[in-house]
Amino acid sequence: MPIFPIVFFFLQLSAAQNDCTPTRCSDQGPTIRYPFGLKDRQPPHCAYPGFDLSCSPTNTTILDLPNSVKFQIKAIDYKSQSIHIKDPDNCFPKQLRDLNLSTTSFNFSDQFIYDFSLFNCPSKGRDSYYLIDCLSDGSSFVYAFYTLIT
Fold first, then answer.
1. How far is C-alpha 141 from the geometric centre of its chain's CA atoms?
2. Chain centroid to CA 79: how far?
3. What is the distance in angstroms between the CA of the first residue and the CA of the last residue of the chain?
4. What does the domain layout of the chain look like in residue ranges?
5. The pTM is what?
């Protein structure tokens, strides 16, 4: 009689491990495996808390961060423990206004850290600043001035 619970335990453990098979949102998307998990396609135990990814309606891989900040995952490098992100709306500075990584397990790579200052100007300025088109409109122009933090 004691052999059945042991066999059942191993069968249940084996089944639980199989449902965490690496997956993708699309054939071109990054492979998603632990510590990441894919919401609605894998059980919650397949991901480390806060490392849940999702698939967009167009099957791109999405990272949802607090304050409704969403990034498209272009690549995941499991060896270097880094992810390469892209803003799905092509306006990264707009996303940065609400970005707060202090409540997540993520941080920016210290390889390329810049200090940005944004300026809203009533007229078009010189070429010495970087124009942020996606934050500008016909009556005001947003420029970024940045320096590399060393």
1. 28
2. 17
3. 67
4. 15-91
5. 0.69
